[in-house]
From TrEMBL, chain A:
Gene3D superfamilies: P-loop containing nucleotide triphosphate hydrolases (3.40.50.300). Keywords: ATP-binding, Nucleotide-binding, Transport. The lineage of its organism: Bacteria, Pseudomonadati, Bacteroidota, Flavobacteriia, Flavobacteriales. It comes from Kriegella aquimaris. Belongs to the ABC transporter superfamily. Macrolide exporter (TC 3.A.1.122) family. GO terms for molecular function: ATP binding; ATP hydrolysis activity; transmembrane transporter activity. SUPFAM superfamilies: P-loop containing nucleoside triphosphate hydrolases. It comes from the Bacteria. This is Putative ABC transport system ATP-binding protein. Residues 5-228 form the ABC transporter domain.
TrEMBL record, chain B:
It comes from the Bacteria. This is Putative ABC transport system permease protein. Residues 269-381, 727-840 form the ABC3 transporter permease C-terminal domain. It is a multi-pass membrane protein. It is found in: Cell membrane. InterPro entries: ABC3_permease_C (IPR003838), MacB_PCD (IPR025857), Membrane_comp_ABC_pdt (IPR038766). The chain crosses the membrane at residues 31-51, 266-290, 311-336, 356-386, 407-425, 431-453, 482-501, 724-745, 777-800, 812-831. One of its GO terms (cellular component) is plasma membrane. Residues 32-235 form the MacB-like periplasmic core domain. Keywords: Cell membrane, Membrane, Transmembrane, Transmembrane helix. The keyword Transmembrane helix applies. It comes from Kriegella aquimaris.
Length: 229, 851
């Protein structure tokens, strides 16, 4: 099977004044194409930092990351942006929809960045899939939290990403809405055959993935294969 | 890169435009302040620019009508043989005129008035027309033996057609009211309005005698093929030697154009300051706007947009708003310029036809886009450096910008301000001084804001009550707006109060000293033979003779051994031309007077005629003729040459309303030369003045009387109109200042509201929140406006000393009215922002403001 993400000896240090704080230390793991993968750990364990690095949002201080066969450390800021646009999808805890764009426009943006001619048409189809086609002209402020996260789901899949990173996707939702969103996420992921990486502290959500990476104090505690166990 | 990723994503310019539009239309409300700043600034600049352009065009178009001929030859004396030869060689004059200032009397009321009598012969004006009421009077006056009298004078003295006017020794019927005539200057006309008579009648007035300040004009109509410039260049130097001059309609209109251009430049500068204030508004509004957009920028970057793309989306948006602001501002400016003629018409010698000039329109639009982009660049840079990591709740300093980029943008801004002011002023030194002035003002204001914040931090009054402490804390906490607010308030207060002080200086300069013994009635052209009788007429009325000054007319013959003719021909000579052509009116006396100070040499009060005569020259004459103490000057007094040496150089306060002289001879030399006299007196009131004038005009028709009180009324009228225009422009600055202020206060609105809501949640009462907010804005208002006014006081003192060369007693108005006024305004705007906190439940406020 092809490795879509290859992380080797990754380290990240934040400097605050004269103090140095090691957030990630010697992290190595692989993710195979099509897998679902959860990164769990307590607050401050470095989960979000790790996700940011894997998605090319930040540069590591040591080690290497290879995403879709491309070494991220060798890319410039703009090259990483293009890579994200072509290969990566995102879902965030606080939805991160563009407030001045309608639901339809929000979903269209990643496709428009690729120069797609059918962005609107595909966006409507995706909104239909998440049950919000009739609210496509609404602005984020006119939608509920659950609805906003469903629009975010549609947007995440709009550029047919090879890998999708989800950062605490249910963190800002109530249990019932959260469950619905998660179900939708896994369904869409299955249909698209996308690799899914979820950062969460919700162990139930983590257990629905094929792999779980447990972090503590910036180090890997356990890298377990739930299917094996 | 070894993969198939391009450096740029495939979305092109269309997508950028689409995103800019999508985002912009949902953010319209937030960009309102930005638009308002642009619109006001552009409107101010375009209105002035367009009006100046129209004025220039009007002058060029109406140049012939303004002169009434294609060219004229003028002289202060009747044409001598050589001049007559030249006139004949040009085919003879098509018309001629003699004019002079004189007192006239109106027998109907017995009133007298200083006028300019114009005796005209031939078909003048050949272009334009004498506008009279009735219309036929303009044609009739040359054969009807009557006079055309200035329409305002007719109204002032309740005169009608058919009434009579006494000019010198003749009395003429008034044939019509003169509305306008080519060759009349609006400002001098307000002091000495025109009375037009037939040339043949002038001799009979008995006023054409030596000592009178006469001007002879010979009018010419040229063939269509005549090259007027060439004519000017060949004939004028020859005429100069004969104390005559040739002016073409083009050169005169150019000179006139330049004069109005100078006024236009000053107003333009005031407008530019309004625009600069608007730019502070732009920077401040865009700062808020971009701050609110940084999260969206991070999301876009996450989704794959490059730094360039996200930067361009907002740049396009700002440029678009700048263009719209420029369009609205330009339209507003073009409409506004229609107001100017209402107030400025009396300064202009012609009716201004307003049209829409292309240059100001293009300038308005370009300026809108360029200024917006330039002043938005600094906050816009934030989009370039914002990290996509922000979407993951990782806090990074979004204000991190490259130092190089910031320096570059700031340099571009300074360069632009310099380039634009240079374009407006056309003077490198003034443009540099303007930029330096702006830099100094901003630096002082900014420096004081920093010092203030550091001062409070260091000497924080811990013993103060909670409310006072809390409001002080607000001034230096993170994300504070102290600097921006003090800059905005300070610059606004500085401008308004400087304009006020300048007006004060100008008006104070023109105010007569109210002492009883200072002259307020000046009698010119008193002949030697008349001197005793005139003095007697005055003293018999119980009035004092304050001055009895002899005046001798003379011309320069040689400067340091070189004849003026030689100097004229020497193209390398830097001696000012007027020195060579001027008829100096010189006096003699044995002592200095109160308006004079010796700056070099030694004052010599008396001398004998047979020696080298020690004279005193005024600083400006010494400078223009390039002489120093010890140099020799030869003067020609009606054919007699006087050898003199410069014994002293004097500083003369020309602004004093009294007879001042550029050249003073010692006693004992000129007593027997042909001379006339200037007498002055002090009359206690208007009635006494009118009575004396009536008597003097009756007995001595050649004597010209200047009533300084009337002159003062005229000067005040002129200054009133000028100050209206200045106030009008200042209004733009004030309005823009208010918008900047609202923008700056709004910048910190959400931050403050969040804190107020928190206090509210913790149980703070409305009155407490209100007091904290009020105190905070009170500090800012007092500090900003106080420093602004103090700075303006310093700049006005410098202006008074170096530019207006006068003393300056500051008025209390800026301190008594402006300071509290601006502070209250700041307070109201600040409190207005917090209204929602006081009226609504905390959560509702946060939801509403956060959306």
């Amino acid at each position: 099977m092809t490795k879509i993400l290859n992380v080797r000896n990754l380290g990240k240090i934040y400097t605050s004044g004269s103090k140095k704080l090691t957030v990630l230390d010697d992290i190595s793991f692989d993710i195979t194409e099509g897998d679902t993968f959860a990164i769990v750990g307590p607050s401050g364990s470095g989960k979000t930092t790790l996700l940011g690095l894997c998605a090319g949002l930040d540069r590591p201080d040591s080690g290497s990351i290879e995403l879709c066969g491309v070494s991220l450390t060798s890319l410039s800021e703009d090259e990483r942006a293009v890579l994200r646009n072509q290969k990566v999808g995102f879902i965030f805890q606080d939805f991160q929809l563009l407030p001045t764009l309608t639901a339809l426009e929000n979903v269209s943006v990643p496709m428009e960045l690729q120069g797609s001619k059918n962005a609107s048409k595909i966006a409507i189809e995706l909104l239909d899939k998440v049950g919000l086609a009739d609210r496509r002209h609404h602005y984020p402020s006119q939608l509920s939290g659950g609805e906003q996260q469903r629009v975010a789901l549609a947007r995440a899949f709009s550029n047919t990403p090879a890998i999708l990173f989800a950062d605490e996707p249910t963190g800002n939702l109530d249990e019932e809405t959260g469950e619905k969103v998660v179900q939708l996420l896994f369904d869409l992921n299955k249909d698209a055959g996308t690799t899914l990486v979820i950062v969460t502290h919700d162990l139930d959500l983590a257990k629905r993935n094929q792999h779980i990476l447990r972090l503590k104090g910036g180090k890997i505690l356990v890298d377990e294969n739930t299917l094996v166990s | 890169m070894s993969n198939n990723l391009g450096v740029f994503s495939k979305a092109g310019v269309r997508w950028l435009l689409k995103m800019a539009w999508r985002d912009g239309k949902a953010s319209g409300r937030r960009l309102f302040l930005f638009m308002a700043s642009i619109v006001l600034g552009i409107a101010a600049v375009v209105s002035i620019q367009s009006f100046s352009d129209n004025l220039k065009q009007n002058i060029a178009l109406q140049s012939k009508a303004l002169m009434g001929a294609d060219f004229i030859i003028d002289s202060r004396q009747p044409a001598n043989e050589r001049v007559v030869e030249i006139i004949d060689s040009l085919g003879g004059a098509d018309g001629r005129e003699v004019n002079f200032a004189s007192m006239v009397a109106f027998p109907k009321s017995g009133a007298t008035k200083l006028v300019r009598v114009r005796g005209i012969e031939g078909g003048f004006p050949f272009y334009g027309k004498l506008e009279t009421e009735p219309l036929s009077a303009a044609k009739k006056y040359q054969d009807g033996g009557g006079a055309l009298v200035d329409a305002t004078v007719m109204l002032q003295f309740d005169l009608n057609v058919g009434d009579s006017i006494k000019v010198g020794e003749i009395t003429l019927p008034i044939l019509g009211a003169l509305e306008s005539a080519p060759g009349d200057n609006a400002i001098s006309s307000s002091v000495a309005p025109s009375v037009i008579v037939d040339y043949g009648l002038v001799q009979g007035t008995g006023l054409l005698q030596k000592g009178s300040r006469l001007e002879y004009n010979y009018y010419f109509v040229a063939d269509a093929n005549t090259d007027l410039n060439k004519l000017d260049k060949t004939i004028d130097p020859i005429l100069d030697a004969e104390n005559a001059d040739l002016d073409t309609h083009t050169s005169t209109s150019q000179r006139l154009g330049r004069r109005y251009e100078n006024v236009g430049k000053f107003l333009n500068l005031v407008a530019f300051i309004a625009l600069l204030l608007g730019c502070v508004g732009i920077a401040s509004s865009v700062h808020i706007y971009i701050k609110e957009k940084l999260r969206s920028v991070a999301v876009l970057k996450c989704l794959g947009a490059t730094r360039k793309q996200t930067f361009l989306i907002y740049l396009i948006q700002i440029a678009g708003m700048g263009l719209i602001g420029g369009i609205i501002g330009t339209i507003a400016g073009l409409l506004l310029q229609q107001v100017f003629p209402l107030f400025l018409q009396s300064f202009l010698p012609f009716e201004v036809q307003l049209s829409f000039a292309v240059q100001p329109i293009i300038m308005g639009l370009l300026l809108g886009v360029f200024m917006s982009v330039l002043f938005a660049l600094l906050p816009l840079l934030g989009t370039w450096y914002v990290s996509p990591l922000q979407v993951l709740r990782v806090q990074e300093d979004a204000s991190l910008r490259s130092r190089k980029a910031t320096v570059l943008v700031l340099s571009a801004i300074m360069l632009f301000i310099f380039a634009f002011s240079y374009w407006l002023l056309d003077n490198l030194r003034f443009a540099l001084a303007f930029v330096a002035g702006i830099l100094v003002t901003f630096s002082i204001l900014g420096g004081i804001a920093v010092l203030f914040m550091k001062g409070i931090k260091r000497y924080f009054p811990s013993s103060w009550g909670f409310l006072a402490r809390q409001s002080l804390l607000n001034l230096f906490r993170p994300n504070n707006q102290t600097m921006v607010l003090i800059l905005a308030i300070g610059v606004g207060a500085f401008l308004i109060s400087t304009l006020y002080f300048t007006k004060d200086i100008l008006l104070a300069k023109a105010t007569l000293e109210k002492q009883d013994q200072s002259p307020n009635l000046i009698l010119l052209d008193v002949q030697t033979a008349q001197k005793e009788s005139v003095a007697k007429s005055i003293t018999l009325k119980g009035l004092p003779i304050l001055d009895n000054i002899p005046i001798i007319a003379m011309r320069m013959q040689r400067i340091n051994g070189r004849s003026v003719d030689d100097i004229r021909l020497d193209s390398t000579s830097t001696i000012n031309q007027w020195i060579l052509n001027h008829e100096f009116r010189v006096t003699y006396r044995d002592s200095l007077v109160s308006s004079e100070n010796l700056v070099a040499g030694e004052w010599i009060g008396s001398a004998s005629p047979n020696t080298l005569i020690p004279i005193s020259v005024a600083e400006n004459v010494a400078g223009d003729s390039q002489v120093v103490v010890g140099d020799s000057l030869v003067f020609n007094v009606q054919g007699v040459l006087m050898n003199t040496r410069v014994a002293s150089i004097r500083a003369v306060d020309w602004s004093r309303m009294q007879p001042n002289f550029s050249i003073v001879f010692p006693s004992g030399v000129l007593e027997n030369a042909p001379q006339f006299h200037v007498l002055s007196t002090n009359v206690p009131n208007r009635t006494a003045s009118a009575e004396l004038q009536r008597e003097l005009v009756g007995k001595f028709p050649n004597v010209t009387i200047i009533d300084l009180r009337q002159v003062l009324v005229i000067i005040e009228g002129i200054l009133d109109k000028i100050s209206w225009v200045i106030n009008f422009m200042a209004f733009f600055s004030i309005l823009t200042g208010i918008i900047v202020l609202i923008g700056s206060v709004r910048t910190s609105k959400y931050q403050r509201i969040k804190e107020s809501v928190l206090l509210r949640t913790l149980g703070a009462k409305s009155a407490q929140i209100l007091k904290i907010t009020a105190l905070e804005y009170l500090y800012l208002g007092v500090l900003g406006s106080g420093i602004g006014i103090l700075l303006s006081l310093i700049s006005s003192l410098l202006l008074a000393k170096w530019v207006f060369e006068t003393t300056f007693v500051p008025s209390w108005v800026p301190f008594g009215l402006l300071l509290p006024g601006i502070t209250i305004l700041v307070l109201l705007i600040g409190l207005g922002n917090s209204r929602s906190v006081l009226n609504s439940p905390p959560l509702e406020v946060l939801r509403k403001e956060g959306s």
